[in-house]
Amino acid sequence: MTNLITPNVAAELISHEGIVREAYRDSVGVWTWSIGITSSSGHKVWPRYVDNPQSLKRCFEVFEWVVRNNYLPAVQQAFAGHTLTEAQLGAALSFHYNTGGIKKATWVKRWKAGDVSGAKKAIMNWKKPEEIIPRRKKEQALFFEGVWSNNGTGTEYKVRKPSYLPDWSSATSVSTKAILDDLFG
Question: Which 3 state secondary structure label does DSSP give 20?
Answer without folding.
Answer: strand
